Amino acid sequence: MRRTTLLLLIVCGATFFAGLGRPAIGDSDEAFYAEAGREMVASGDWITPYYNFEPRFQKPILFYWLVSAGYLVAGVNEAAARWGSALAGLGLALLTAACGRRWYDERTARLAGLIVATAFGYFSIGRLALPDLPLAFWITLTTWSALVGLCDRPARPHLWLMLAGAAVGLGFLTKGPVAIVVPALVVLPICWLERRHVHPPVRAVAGALIIAVALAAPWFVAMAQIHGSSYIEGFFVGDNLERFATSRFNDPRPPWFYLPIVAGGLLPWTPLMLCGVAPFAGWVTRRARAADVTLRLIVWAALPLLFFTASIGKQPRYILPILPPLAVLLARTLERRLAAADRRRDPLVRGAAASIGVMLVALGTLLMRALPLIVMIPPALVIASAGAIIAAGLAVTAVAVAGPLRHVGLVVGLAGAVTLVGLQYALSPAGRDPVQDIAALVVQHRQADQPVATYRVFVRNLVFYTGVRQDDLSSPEAVRAYLQTPRPVLVVIAADDLAKINDRGPLHARVLEEVLYFNASAVKLRTLLKPDPEKDLERVLLVTNDKARR
Questions:
Q1: How many CB atoms neighbour CB 44 within 10 A?
Q2: Using CB atoms within 10 A of its CB, is residue 448 exposed (0-12), middle (13-18) or buried (19+)?
Q3: Backbone phi, then psi, for 143, in 5-degree steps?
Q4: Which of 9, 73, 363, 434 has the fewest C-beta atoms lying within 10 Å of its C-beta?
Q5: How far apart are CA 519 and CA 533, in angstroms?
Q6: Closest C-alpha to 91, from 62, 111, 113
Q7: Cα 77 to Cα 360: distance, rounded to the nearest angstrom
Q8: DSSP string, 82-118
Q9: Lowest-pLDDT choice from 110-119, 335-344, 539-548
Q10: CA angle centred on 179, ends 37 and 301, rounded to 5°
């Protein structure tokens, strides 16, 4: 147990915490929480979140408090905004290992924790100031502790159920009713399947509910007193029911949308999921009977996946809570297969591991080819990172082809950690980021109380670095009208967008500054195979309508 814990602490330190301050706060949902936390500390209002100096009602308060606490301890910076997500990633790895240990054995625990610690889905979200990974932690803790307390007949079931109640309350305070719905979708069917062995302690269940309400309710009551009952209705109906059942917040997506998301989220482990195809087919066709614990894990992963698949507004982050049970299932399946194989060759395991190695080598090679586009990172660091990823891939391939099978899981896990850290340092600048550069230019050129606006670039994150309220221009007509106002204004806009608007009629705009920007979210395979700085690097402009400025 101590070795497993130490290994996971080291690996998670690399995958979740190393370089946590890189890159700048992104032009995404992350900026809402990072900036709201900054405004919370500045204003001293710890009840109502504000973003861009206006109330933000979309999510409950706990994650805003975590971000603000980070700022109070370490100052306002990117790592302080993200520490809550990184800590949740570490907690999920340790929690998954604890689950594997209690229900199986230490080897399963070690591998399951390693899978979670190096899964790309958790790595990518754990380095953003978003509440989704903390929510996944609370949901996982709720589900597991409730199952143990109700189904495992532990010595002190009331302690497990009290832990589940606390996790529900904190999860509700993180993102709302989903913290209750997802665990209930898992726990209730499993209790029914194992009903002959389940004897719920009524007082302990009631105590768990009291704990959950005591933790979650006070803030909602305070918000209702300050902003009226319309806030409560708007949150529960608008931000939850409509988000699930309508396309108001997210465009409709096909039923199979989450399948590639799950496969991508489990990388680099995804090829090894092939080891579970035969056992799963046997359970489905009833040629073999799944053990009770295995059935629990299948239900735990499948029902939340079906629930979110049924929703209209799908988002990749919503299914993060299903990765821990999948990790335990994969770890158990792989360990049993390797034990059965003993010293014999296992073509399926070796082939899957070899494909992982080839994939990592290809990834390192593509990273090397993208060097001309990564203008914010020293070339030597990019080359070193790509070389480390290629070496990790070659190590996995060597073990897959000729090494002992018992080392496959550990080698893939360590190679995954090297790859994730390499990507972090090769693609994320430690110094000035384009948004920080343009923010500094805005502050430099802005006159007292001069309005600032953005159009389609740095829309969400610019305010975090300027500390100045900004207007979001949503159409070319809005840009034209903004620049035609008699009052001097500043606008941040991409050069291509400015040219398109100008083609419809001359604008009263003058370029003050220019910054090069590589938009990683717009990267396509062609970008990596044939990088072209002229096409792939954006020019972001700071323009004004003030003809007197020089």
A1: 6
A2: exposed
A3: -60, -50
A4: 73
A5: 12
A6: 113
A7: 32
A8: HHHHHHHHHHHHHHHHHHHHHHT-HHHHHHHHHHHHH
A9: 335-344
A10: 120
Query: Are 64 and 174 within 8 A, CB to CB?
Result: no
Tell me which H or E stretch contains 261.
helix 258-265
User: d(Cα 300, Cα 520) in Å, to the nearest integer?
Assistant: 34
Cα→Cα distances 168→143, 184, 221, Å: 9, 10, 17
Mean pLDDT, rounded, for 516-537: 69
Q: Phi/psi class of residue 228: alpha, beta or left (left: φ > 0; alpha: ψ in -120 to 50)?
A: left
Q: Residue 6 and residue 405: Cα distance in Å, rounded?
A: 23
Q: Tell me the pLDDT tens digit for each residue of 493-515.
A: 999 999 999 988 888 789 999 99
Q: Are 430 and 21 in contact (CB under 8 A)?
A: yes
**What would the two tokens of residue 353 be?**
């591991």
Helix (H, G, I), strand (E, B) or coil at 471: strand
- Lowest mean pLDDT segment, chosen from 288-302, 389-403, 441-455: 288-302
Of 164, 38, 33, 144, residue with least CA distance to 94? 144
Q: What is the mean pLDDT of the chain?
A: 90
Question: Residue 174 — very low, low, confident or very high, per pLDDT cuts 50/70/90?
Answer: very high
For the chain, the first-to-last Cα distance in angstroms comes to 66
d(C-alpha 393, C-alpha 362), whole Å = 8
Contact 373, 531 (CB under 8 A): yes
Cis peptide upstream of residue 23 (ω within 30 degrees of 0): yes
The CA distances from residue 2 to 98, 144, 412, 510, in Å, are 12, 21, 21, 63
Closest by CA position to 147, among listed 295, 279, 283, 343:
295
d(CA 156, CA 149): 8
Q: Which residue has the tokens 């390797």?
A: 338
> What residues have CB less than 8 Å from 542, skipping those under 6 apart?
438, 441, 442, 445, 490, 491, 492, 511, 512, 513, 514, 515
pLDDT, residue 481, reads 93
Alpha helices in 287-322 (DSSP H): 292-309
| pLDDT (0 to 100) of residue 549 | 53
Asked whether the whole model's pTM tops 0.90, one would answer yes
Residue 542 contacts residue 512 (beta carbons within 8 Å): yes
Encoded tokens for 30: 């992350």
Q: By percentage, how much of the chain surpasses pLDDT 70?
A: 93
pLDDT digits (tens, 9 = 90+) for 223-240: 999 988 778 777 777 777
Q: Using alpha carbons, select from 75, 74, 73, 65 the residue that is nearest to residue 33.
A: 65
Tokens 């740095």 -> residue: 458
Length of the chain: 550
- Residue 19, helix vs strand vs coil: coil
